[in-house]
Amino acid sequence: MTSCNYEPANRYTFPCKPAANPKAIVTGGKGSKYRFTVLTERLLRYEWSEDGGFEDRVSTVAPFRWFDAPKYEVIDKKGHLEIITRYFHLVYDKKEFCSTGLAVKVGKDTWNYDGKSYGDLGGTARTLDGADGRIQLEPGILSRKAFAVLDDSKSMIFDENGWIATRRPGRKDGYLFAYHGDHKAAIKDFYRLSGRQPLLPRWALGNWFSRYHAYTTDEYLEVMNGFKEHEIPLNVAVIDMDWHKVDIPAKYGSGWTGYSWNRDLIPDPEGLLKELHSRGLKVTVNDHPADGIRAFEDQYKEVAKALHHDTSHEQPIRFDCCDKKFLDAYFDVLKLNLEKQGIDFWWIDWQQGTRSRIPGIDPLWVLNHYHYLTSYRNVKTLEQPLTFSRYAGAGSHRYPIGFSGDTVITWASLHFQPEFTATASNIGYGWWSHDIGGHFAGSRSNELTARWVQLGCFSPILRLHSEKSRWNSKEPWKYESEAYKVMKMYLCIRHRLIPFLYTMNVRAAFESEPIVQPMYWNHKDDAPAYTVPNQYYFGPDLIVAPITTPHSPTTLLGGVRAWLPPGRYVDMLNSGMIYDGGRYVHVHRPLKQIPLFAREGTILPLDITPGMYKNGSRRPRDIDILLVVGADAHFELVEEPYRGTASHEQAFVRIPITWKQKEGILTIGPEQQQGGSSGIAGIVPTYLRRWNVTLVGCRMDSTRLQTIRTKYRGVEAVAMEAVTQIRKCNALTGPAGGGQEMRVALGEDLQLSVVDISKRMHDMLYRCEMSYPLKEQVWQLVTQSNDPVKKRIQRLLDLNLPDALRDAVMEIWAADGRAVGNACGEEVWSTSEPCELTLGSSDFESEKAEDGYVLV
């Protein structure tokens, strides 16, 4: 199972190389009960078995154990073994593994065997079902200690024929990751061992709509019409379990499982699916497979015939993941017939635990593995193989996309989800799809739902979802005006982000870089990076600090405590706010903004093709390059091949975009494909691509700047753009365009604007619901006094302001060290608690043009 578009001969074949390099193996010879494999200088496999046998078959964790043998030293004496590399030192007494007999020293830390997995930075969990806030996470392979451990003693096995098998009981098998905080290197080697994340199709990166509701055909199409009328793009239509018969005779049991269309609701399923496809949508339907195929099903007799099952007594065909014949009929009769009707892929909703009739075989693993391999038969429709299911354990990243389960609709649930998404990357699991807005219970809250959609916009997958309730649905137009506008805005932003998201998708598959990464992945030696679990990198340059608590009744702003690494940053959604990094900052935003930071020298490409708010995700014709000046920048836009499939890394079309800060030159192209060749004439017709450049947070003198007002679907945006930019500049960028580059002079050594403390402070205080005299006191203290900053800060503290107000004042006052009268380096926040969040929300219409709201 690799990230390439490998097409198996059948669902029982997949890439693997499970036997280790003999040169990397250390054992006691014939009859030895221990075996160590030095996979790299930092990755060790350890095994012990009473019977002297060892596992060389594929496990769910480790399909690829063949590595080039690294350098290592062995000291082998009677009753004593040492293995030494540059990064670890193992000492072993050659007896059954125990805490006193097997130890590995990594730096200043020592691991003593205990048979458990260990990774204190967290991993992920099988499901968020019923979660109302934090849940316990399984460990990942990253740690604040110098080592992490992944026990593989009980994972499922695949035999040489690609069929499931079990391990011999009592054997011990695990992996020690001795990476000493080099988190990215650990993940890269984990992917080498376990297989990389596969590539997703472009359309999967857009908006999904789902609701647990018994829709009729007309009702479902009415919802789709609503998205069209409100000009909100969708890519995936999810139909929950009521697509099939639910109200069945009691003698057949529960209606939870079903494979027969409910024709009372959907009399012409082929017609519905055809209509959804005509609207540019892919379709997935829910499957709870636990109850098998029962006599009321339309395909009962057909499946029974394939299995030689006696139908005379209407006995059910039991779901049995351990029966290869059953799975063949399940996939090649039951599901294939439904796929021929127009179902594109399956939402596997297994909730029945980890047990099957064979101990050690987890049904979810079986379903995920074989569904994914079977989906190769639909690649002409899907573009890439795909399934949609729950997390089954380490190695599940090979079967995207993940469904995280049914969360409670509360602020506590929202507050935990950013951390849950980020730490999943610590076990390589990069493609979570959450129930955006929450699933059930809780209370209706416009603010909560809007904040959740903001998080969804900057999550791996954005899928609106809700429970089976007349009171609960996530269509944006069913919310109050402000929340509706915010939800619509971020669903449209998500669609505009798809060129960036697809590039990150390729990066994840081929460069072992999940799109969402905890802060400490890129700042492993900075202690504050470990104190902001809800903050994360979204791609290599964007930092997201979601607001996950209600607004302050004083400031009417939402707040979050963030940490900015060293450097200077602009908020992409509030480009008048520039921050000096290397410190904590309390960030306060109105409801329409989620803090999205970009360091100087960032390039972000967006789709601005006319009509882009239609469903589906085509190769963008018009692209807006958001450029954050102040430092050199580079971004390589990656797109699908013009012909064929994305079967290897060299097959993609790549367009380099480079900014030279000192010279002020932006270069686009040349377009490249096939291992670096450019100008691939004759493959496709010439087409015209239009490029636009927006300078984010950059103010140039008035003779070189113009204000551009544009309206995208009723949402007004104002961006300050250089006259010298290549706005709507026609350029041939297809292969027949000759692979030429474009060079545009925007101005030498352009810099980010300086924060206007007085103006920002006035705008913030004006909105606050507080006494007018106190507003004036704060205003005079910050902007009018000539006293030293330290003295003025103390006077501010003496006012005993609400925490949210004090922090909002300090955010503006201390943001930019270049601003006249700034308090940068002298700030005093309301709390020293590393993960404290202040409260907040706002008025959508009140944003001023100079806020530079450039993403919509």
Automatic annotation (TrEMBL):
<dbReference type="InterPro" id="IPR017853">
    <property type="entry name" value="GH"/>
</dbReference>
<dbReference type="InterPro" id="IPR000322">
    <property type="entry name" value="Glyco_hydro_31_TIM"/>
</dbReference>
<dbReference type="InterPro" id="IPR013780">
    <property type="entry name" value="Glyco_hydro_b"/>
</dbReference>
<comment type="similarity">
    <text>Belongs to the glycosyl hydrolase 31 family.</text>
</comment>
<protein>
    <recommendedName>
        <fullName>alpha-glucosidase</fullName>
        <ecNumber>3.2.1.20</ecNumber>
    </recommendedName>
</protein>
<dbReference type="GO" id="GO:0006491">
    <property type="term" value="P:N-glycan processing"/>
</dbReference>
<keyword id="KW-0378">Hydrolase</keyword>
<dbReference type="GO" id="GO:0005975">
    <property type="term" value="P:carbohydrate metabolic process"/>
</dbReference>
<dbReference type="InterPro" id="IPR048395">
    <property type="entry name" value="Glyco_hydro_31_C"/>
</dbReference>
<feature type="domain" description="Glycosyl hydrolase family 31 C-terminal">
    <location>
        <begin position="513"/>
        <end position="604"/>
    </location>
</feature>
<dbReference type="GO" id="GO:0004558">
    <property type="term" value="F:alpha-1,4-glucosidase activity"/>
</dbReference>
<dbReference type="Pfam" id="PF21365">
    <property type="entry name" value="Glyco_hydro_31_3rd"/>
</dbReference>
<dbReference type="Pfam" id="PF01055">
    <property type="entry name" value="Glyco_hydro_31_2nd"/>
</dbReference>
<feature type="domain" description="Glycoside hydrolase family 31 TIM barrel">
    <location>
        <begin position="198"/>
        <end position="504"/>
    </location>
</feature>
<keyword id="KW-0326">Glycosidase</keyword>
